[in-house]
Design a protein that fits this description.
The chain is built from five helices and 28 strands. The chain is mostly beta strands. It has a single domain (about 5-370), classed as TolB, C-terminal domain (Neuraminidase), CATH 2.120.10. β21 and β22 (about 285-295) form a beta hairpin.
Length: about 375
């Protein structure tokens, strides 16, 4: 199995790894692995794909987030031009949201994408700690909300807009934006390891969030347990994510990091929680990546992508299904389109990069279910 290989910027201190992993401050090399395969056969096979129609003025230089809008269009955040491009189901460009900058309606660094009702597109400015609002139909700016911490994920629920955003100053990992008061509130204490060890806080800065109704489910990168909370205020259940193929997180992660000397060694210590999605049936899809660095060429990072499917009653899981980003030159991107998982792959064809959206079936009959402890 050959993973996606990601060409990063030249070596930086170990504490800066979060930039390479989550801001995608790098470029990618070519690799290949089998798609959606476990020992029982294909679980997430590709059933359809669409080529996104880019141009010289509207292209994806570094795609860092993918979302599917209420109308079924594909929204892709580009971290080079700092904007979001919206493509139709046929791959045609529909609209562009935002532009690079730090003024009204501008983005200094694009992050995750969300939606509010049928009217607004929400785009996180990763470095400015702002959630920009745009009219979905016209693309015009509708202001922003400010909050504490870089947001790595967005979900809109009945109780408000929720951001997975680790804030060291507030010592919290979750932000709730109340639509009634038009204000942001920090919730859910960070794991003690994030507070005690700056290396864990930097390497595993991403917080992933999903949910339904008053149930907000939170995953901290660097930990193998998801937290089921009541409105982000009270942890009502803890959900261990079984490990089959991925590295996972050792119980002595902080001790292991004390002995690493290089980025390559640090990357091998634990898996990174990359994505957390909810299927309409109640299934959870938790995607982790194992990242390694070529010892002979420290600019090259290698990603192995694993998705674990948790059943709606959270008793069993289909663990570590491999996902293929063959010939990919962008970091892995995943989203849900209703009940259909979708992924984004960017490849080099000739002297140009082309971007493809793939739609996957979810073949639960092929799963080998294991109990959740």
């Amino acid at each position: 199995m050959m993973p996606i290989r990601y060409r990063a910027f030249p070596a930086a201190p170990v504490l800066l790894l979060g930039c390479a992993l989550f801001l995608a401050c790098s470029r990618v090399d070519v690799a290949r692995e089998r798609d959606g395969v476990s020992s029982t056969g294909q679980i997430l096979p590709v059933i359809d794909s669409v080529l996104l129609q880019e141009s010289d003025s509207a292209y994806l230089g570094r795609p860092v987030a993918l979302a599917v809008g209420p109308e079924g269009d594909y929204y892709v955040a580009d971290n080079i031009a700092n904007r979001v491009l919206r493509f139709g189901a046929d791959g045609g460009l529909r609209l562009i949201y935002g532009r690079s900058g730090q003024g009204p309606g501008e983005l200094a660094s694009t992050g995750p994408i969300g939606f509010l009702d049928d009217s607004l597109v929400l785009i996180s400015d990763f470095s400015m700690f702002q959630l920009e609002r745009y009219d979905r139909r016209s693309g015009e700016s509708r202001g922003h909300w400010s909050y504490q911490g870089p947001a790595a994920s967005i979900v809109t629920l009945q109780s408000g807009v929720w951001l997975g955003a680790a804030s060291q100053s507030e010592k919290t990992g979750l932000v709730r934006i109340s639509l009634k008061t038009d204000s942001a509130r920090n919730l859910l204490p960070l794991p003690q390891a994030h507070l005690d060890d700056p290396r864990i806080a930097q390497m595993h800065a991403a917080v992933r969030v999903t949910g339904v109704g008053d149930s907000v489910i939170v995953g901290y990168s660097g930990f193998d347990t998801l937290l089921v909370t009541l409105r982000g205020e009270q942890v009502v259940d803890r959900l261990p994510v079984p490990r089959l193929h991925r590295i996972g997180t050792p119980v002595d992660l902080s001790t292991k990091l004390q002995h690493v000397q290089t980025q390559a060694e640090a990357l091998r210590t634990a898996s990174v929680l990359w994505n957390l999605l909810r299927h309409p049936s109640g299934l959870l899809l938790a995607t982790n990546v194992d990242v390694s660095m070529d010892s002979r060429n420290p600019e090259v990072m290698t990603f192995r992508v694993y998705t674990t499917i948790v059943d709606p009653v959270r008793r069993v899981a289909c663990s570590d299904v491999t996902l293929d980003f063959a010939d990919g030159v962008a970091r892995p991107q995943l989203a849900m389109d209703g009940d259909t998982p979708v992924t984004l792959v960017q490849r080099v064809v000739g002297d140009q990069a082309v971007t493809v959206i793939r739609r996957h079936a979810l073949v639960l009959e092929a799963c080998e279910w294991v109990p959740i402890d």
